[in-house]
Design goal:
This protein has 544 residues and is of the alpha/beta class. It has a domain of 105 residues: ANL, C-terminal domain (GMP Synthetase, Chain A, domain 3, 2-Layer Sandwich), CATH 3.30.300. 29% of the residues lie in helices and 24% in strands. It is built from 16 helices and 27 strands. The strands form seven sheets. Strands 2-1-11-10-12-13-14 form a seven-stranded mixed beta sheet, sandwiched between helices. Helix 2 packs antiparallel against helix 8, helix 3 runs antiparallel to helix 4 and helix 8 packs across helix 9. It is globular, with a radius of gyration of 23 Å.
Length: 544
């Protein structure tokens, strides 16, 4: 992983930018303020960020980060304070995030789709000192439980500011804060990832973890200095956030689109002269489903991330658009720890283990299993703080996940003799839909709050686009009657729109184990039965 600085001088541009960055930023310097300051000196007026009409050069971005930090200091925010951030893909998100990282405060990005139960849990757990929220999302804050104590300060982004709240202050570029006393192991963000048997866990991501995300991802994607990195993924997830670090560390430009559009993706990529793209799961399938045009190859995209893209999609995508999809695997707790070749020699797999990471496949006793045998994937990093440090406010969950000094992924995986790793399924009840992790437990809590529901089980069913659809089997209280649409309407405002079941099956009883536990595997194996209601077939739209 490490490159020699003298060799770098001799090899010049032959050495990848990511390899130079490892030398340029030794362990103590792997913090946002140091990275951004040095890269601003190196790249000056090169464009770093493009978001709508906003353009920030490297030099301007460093100044905005320092000015934003001073704005937070003036508001009473201190190192270690949490700042909740509920905002779509726009420059203000990064303004707040960079200010926090510069100062040593901790950004808490919140999925803009969360409502009710899920949103309330985050406020209870993170206890932020400040809330920054985009004006159209103020209605979401109103769904928070009445007993939840919201921050005393709220800043809004965009029009519609209420009198009891203030607008997000614009950073004064002449009023710059000095970098805080931040260490590489200090948390820069708390990113909430869906649980399976409980509420979402806040992953404590240290400053150096984001550095390594930028390094490992750039290596896997073959990023070159001067590339244009083009993402439509949401900033509140680790993928789009770490893509900013990829750009910053490798002298690239980072183009942030508001959201993914299958019909508009290639036009936007052409307009921005994008060279690297980011696609997950069903997105590649959606692009292939678009009508063919003479412009299918009229772009400069050289490569795209293709994590979770089905095996059968890779070759048709390459043949039609001329873009190889890179297989990969990572999680909020870990990093870009597996990556395939370009183009993939085994499409649809996780790829090969990244240099700097150790992996084992283990049984229920954490004993290592031989090649070809499925077990739980456990991981650990050789580089300091390349992985998350735990779950915020959940010491028991932290100990459980990091037991025996290995991060337990919760994924059932097989290592083949040739070094490829293959994902089989989740060890527990997690559902992946449209790039979002859905907690079956959280959906069950929302459904079971309906007075007519006696019991329910939430489980995945296959989607036509790959990944999963959310299904719910429900037993009703005696004397009650419900339709599938009633469950949909009950869930609206209580959980995120993407977690609301597509399939609803009213059953007289659940399949149970001898110990009385619901056999979700039996429900899953039954698939879409004759008595399963399909929201999409019924033409029912979810209200967001």
């Amino acid at each position: 992983m490490r490159a020699n600085a003298d060799e770098a001088m001799q090899q010049g541009s032959a050495m990848p930018a990511w390899a130079r960055a490892v030398d340029l930023f030794p362990p103590s310097d792997r913090i946002l303020s140091t990275i951004l300051t040095r890269q601003a000196e190196r790249y000056g007026d090169r464009v770093l960020l493009v978001a709508g009409e906003t353009r920030w050069t490297y030099r301007q971005t460093a100044a905005i980060a320092a000015a934003s930090a001073q704005t937070l200091i003036d508001a009473g925010i201190k190192s270690g304070d949490r700042v909740a951030l509920m905002c779509s893909n726009r420059a203000e998100f990064l303004q707040v995030y960079l200010g926090c990282a510069w100062l040593g405060a901790i950004a808490v990005p919140i999925n803009t789709a969360l409502r009710g139960l899920q949103l309330s849990h985050i406020f209870r757990n993170a206890r932020p000192a400040l809330l920054v929220v985009e004006a159209p999302l103020l209605a979401a804050i109103e769904t928070v439980d009445a007993d939840v104590e919201l921050p005393s300060q709220t800043w809004t982004i965009g029009a519609g500011t209420e009198t009891r709240m203030s607008s997000l202050p614009l950073p004064v570029l002449g009023n710059l804060a000095s970098p805080g006393a931040v260490r590489p192991g200090d948390a820069v963000a708390i990113l909430y990832t869906s649980g399976t048997t409980g509420p979402a866990k806040g992953v404590c991501c240290p400053q150096a973890q984001l550095f390594w995300w930028g390094i490992y991802s750039a290596r896997a994607l073959g990023i070159r200095e001067g590339d244009v990195l083009f993402t439509t993924l949401p900033l509140f997830h680790t993928n789009a956030l770490n893509a900013f670090y990829q750009a910053m560390l490798n002298g690239c430009s980072y183009v942030l689109e508001p959201k993914f559009s299958a019909s508009g993706f290639w036009a936007a990529a052409r307009a921005h002269h994008a060279t690297v793209g980011y696609l997950l799961g069903a997105m590649a399938s959606m692009l292939l489903a678009q009508p063919r045009t003479d412009d299918d190859r009229a772009h400069q995209l050289r490569v795209a991330l293709g994590g979770g893209v089905p095996r059968q999609i890779h070759q048709p995508f390459l043949e039609r658009f001329g873009v190889p999809l890179v297989d990969g695997y990572g999680s909020t707790e870990t990093n870009f720890v597996f990556a395939g070749s370009i183009p993939s020699d085994r499409p649809g797999t996780m790829g090969y283990l990244a240099d700097g990471v150790e992996a084992r496949i283990v049984d229920e006793n954490d004993s290592e299993l031989p090649d070809g045998q499925a077990g739980e994937l456990v991981l650990r990093a050789r580089e300091p703080f390349a992985f998350a440090t735990g779950y915020f406010g959940m010491p028991e969950k932290t100990v459980e996940a990091w037991r025996n000094l290995w991060l337990h992924s919760g994924d059932r995986v097989v290592r083949d003799p040739d070094g490829h790793y293959r994902f089989i399924d989740r060890m527990k009840d997690s559902i992946r839909r449209r790039g979002e992790n859905v907690s079956s437990w959280e959906v069950e809590q929302a459904i079971q709050s309906h007075p007519a529901v006696a019991a329910c089980a939430v489980y995945p069913l296959p989607s036509e686009l790959g990944e999963d659809e959310v299904a719910a089997a429900i037993v009703l209280e005696g004397g009650h009657s419900l339709q599938g649409v009633d469950i949909v309407r009950h869930c609206e405002g209580r959980i995120a729109y993407f977690a609301i079941p597509r399939y609803v099956r009213i059953v007289s009883r659940m399949p149970l184990t001898e110990n009385g536990k619901i056999m979700k595997g039996a429900l899953r194996d039954a698939g879409v039965t004759d008595d399963t209601w399909d929201r999409e077939a019924a033409g029912i739209q979810v209200r967001r």
